[in-house]
Known about the structure:
By secondary structure, the chain is mainly alpha-helical. 66% of the residues lie in helices and 0% in strands.
Amino acid sequence: MNDITIQKPVQTEVGPAVSGKASRLSNPGSFGKMLTDSIDQVNRLQVAANSSINDLVTGKQTDIHRTMVAMEKASISFELLMQIRNKVISAYDRIMRMPI
Length: 100
């Protein structure tokens, strides 16, 4: 039990009103980069699932559980991405309907 140590101390982010510094979330383009990274991650999971299916079908892999887990990860990440997209579109529509 003595060998358990904290490798990296936990740091809390303080907002710009408290610290006087701009947070990293206020960088221009950070939302676009986050969105692009998320789409790329979903794509990688889809490609990994397809590769796992192909390996299972061709006999290169015999572990059906690994294939099913890869397929579910890809499916869940895609569903989450679609729900986020729907919320963003809904928010955009709501903003566009606001009176000026």
